[in-house]
Amino acid sequence: MKIIQVQTQAEAAGAQRISDMVGAGLQARGHDVRTVFMYRKTDVYDGDPNADFILRSTPRGPAGRARAAFGLIRYLIRERPDAVITYQYWGNLFGTIGGRLAGARHLIANQSGQPMTRGLLGIASRLDRLIGAWGFYHHNIVNSAWTLAQFAAYPVAYRRRLRRIDHGVAGPDRRTNKAAARAAFGLPAGARLVVSTGRLTPEKNPHVLVRALGLLPDVHVAIAGTGPSRDDLAAIAKEAGVSDRLHLVGEVPPARIFEFLAAGDLFAFASRFETFGLSAAEAAISGLPVVASDLPVLHEVLKTSDGRPAALFAAGGSVTAFAEKIGTVFADPEMAARLAAAGRDLAARYAPEAMCLEYERLLQVDDPTRFRAHGAGKLKVERP
Fold first, then answer.
1. Nearest-5° angle of CA 151, CA 154, CA 158?
2. Quick check: is 384 in a domain?
3. Which residue in 199, 204, 347, 377 sits closest to 274, CA to CA?
4. To 5 degrees, how large is the angle CA 324–CA 314–CA 202?
5. Which of 55, 41, 357, 85 is nearest to 228 (CA)?
6. How many domains does the chain contain in total?
7. Are 87 and 6 a contacting pair, CB within 8 Å?
8. pLDDT one-digit tens code per residue, 91-120
9. pLDDT digit string (tens) for 51-94?
10. N or C: lower Cβ tally within 10 Å for the chain?
11. Where are the beta strands (DSSP E) in 151-278?
12. pTM of the model
């Protein structure tokens, strides 16, 4: 089967890592899979032989966004895939429209962001609700119970196509020596090191971790990622006198993410909202104790099948709360070991193979318009 995955932007972020895993899993099952990005944001996918780009740079203004949208639609019509799997707000909208016009028999959307009410993403959410209720998506994937609940007030016509498939979370394929990992990223050899990954934006809230350094005099923080907040973070660190203990290592490609995590003693995740929290789950599975924002979805995701927490949660997400929890983990090696053991046990719960098998099952349905999702993962074929 010819499958095209649609992403909005090319960068090293969570949604892209999911499509990487889905694509690799479906290729292993004999499918022809390519991923098309509406635009290139960073160079991380430049060498990927299975990646295409509609625009080679970030679009500017309405005219640029229109070129990306209509270029994607033309691409799909030209390629005529059997199935289209879409991710993120704009990828879902324009990938589904293009897939319909191209005659794709399977249209699978991924709700990798919660419904929004303001700005351009608010417009995207309203359009998503509209085309979802009209039945443009054959299947509409959510990645956690919390995310599923965000659509409880949506029309029945929208909700009946929702299907929960928890993200697969890859683990390290080899052990990396901590000293070697720190040397590779230019990080201090003997320091207590907190690591974090994610876009440098207010939504991901790395500012909290930088400010927490002022309350943790013996701790360094290394953050992997790029984004518009980089200069703000450097300025905050300079004002607080902690610049020597903040390490902004830039974008780390997916192939090296576990090498970066191996450099840390603890992983901190201060994001303001998530639908799953892939970065935190990756860190936990790699064996790092995790301190995370006190979000309901993270309480759900960072928990083993037998109910053991794989993280400490910073109440309110404040600077003081994060500093206190980070200090607690460093002061209690036994607690750190318990969190690390629970995190490694998440690997069985989030096996990428299980996620890919669920997508394969959707693609095997002869008539996807007769296939409905009920509850959390139960499927039913509707008879005429």
1. 95
2. no
3. 204
4. 110
5. 41
6. 2
7. yes
8. 999 999 999 999 999 999 999 878 888 898
9. 999 999 999 999 999 999 999 999 999 999 999 999 999 999 99
10. C
11. 162-164, 192-197, 219-224, 246-250, 266-269
12. 0.90
